[in-house]
Predict the 3D structure of the following.
Amino acid sequence: MHYHIQTAPIWDAYKTETDCPLCKIYADREKRVIGQYLNENVMDPDFRVRSNRVGFCKTHIKALYSGQNKLGLALQLETRADALDKLLSKPPADKKSAKKTAELLYKHYGCVVCDALEEPMSRYFITVAEMFENEPDFPELFGAAHHCIEHSIRLYDAAQYAGKSVNTFCATLTSSLKRDLRSTEKSLRSFADCFDFKNAGTRPDPQVIPDAVKLLNGIKVEL
Ligand SMILES: [Zn+2]
Ligand SMILES: [Zn+2]
């Protein structure tokens, strides 16, 4: 069922994205989920229960804070603080109960946005592997794409869904990843060489480090 719904955004990302197509899909969905937590979900009891239970991670709280609904955010943080306060209703009195309190708090320290993205994203990796097997034009686009490390790991993890094409899927993923790692290594070497006194006067390309970070960390850093 998920297959046909998901192929359109995958085709679109693989055809148009010059960086990791799965980072693009993630960013689009992430934007939508952040929007929900700033708008319609703020007063929705189910969403509130979830955000009270695990809170927001450092990345997503920053995204929410830079949004346009400070009142909505304040209300969510207020009930989150209250939920944490209730968890501490019996303060630990010895080292064993301190450990238990830590375990309990760990269970309640996560991110509702990350959680909401995990389920649809894990389906996208499966669909990419299935498309490799089912769509004749897809393997070429897949091999030309620049997958970041995190999403390459997820694709290896989903390789079984490429069915009979699993070997070609893994070979294509590996050769494209090695191609990108080598070209990144080469660019970083040239960047570092510019600082050698023998190369005085040559200017390092400022784009080299942001490009390496996109591949290795899957994020865009400002120049
Ligand atoms: Zn990625
Ligand atoms: Zn998060």
